[in-house]
Amino acid sequence: MRLGRRPLVLFLICLPVLGLSVLLLAPAGQTWLELTDAETGRRIISQPLQSGEEVVLTWKNSLFGLQVTEVFVAADGILLLTQITFADPRGGEPPRVRPGDVDDLYHTGGPFKATGLSRPFNRIVFRVGEIGDPKIRVGTELVSLTREVGFGGAVLLVARKPSVYETTLGRWLH
Question: The whole model's pTM is what?
Answer without folding.
Answer: 0.79
